[in-house]
Amino acid sequence: MHIEEKPPYDTPFEWIGGEDKVRALVDRFYDLMDLEPGYKELREAHGSSLQDARDKLFWFLCGWLGGPDHYQQRFGHPRLRMRHMPFSIGILERDQWLACMDQAMGDVGVDEKLRSRLGQSFFQTADWMRNR
Q1: Average pLDDT over residues 57-70
Q2: Which CATH class is domain 16-129?
Q3: In the chain, where are the structural domains located?
Q4: CA 8, CA 46: separation in Å to the nearest integer?
Q5: What is the mean pLDDT of residues 2-6?
Q6: Mean pLDDT of 81-86
Q7: Exposed end of the chain (fewer CB within 10 Å): N or C?
């Protein structure tokens, strides 16, 4: 029988380092989207300003990771798929989002075990967002 090792913290939010670390991750994610040519299509899908997206992802991730539910307090249930329907999301956009987030997690020093676990969860969610 394989017993999975218990994570060092009760929630991924605690493990990642709280709100400051989530904000750093989100900021790095969107900075990379602006800087890296490999995320061109992903960046184009976000319109001229990234500030609204930065705030919403930060609020969402805090709650999704087990911290404060900032997003739900402001907007109610995330309804991610519905909210992303207006955007054309295919395999290219999914893969760019995942690569950008993985690079951001590496750049801000997310623990490797947590990075791997989050990467799996991000893939499942990002794949579910595809609408073409």
Answers
A1: 98
A2: mainly alpha
A3: 16-129
A4: 35
A5: 65
A6: 90
A7: N
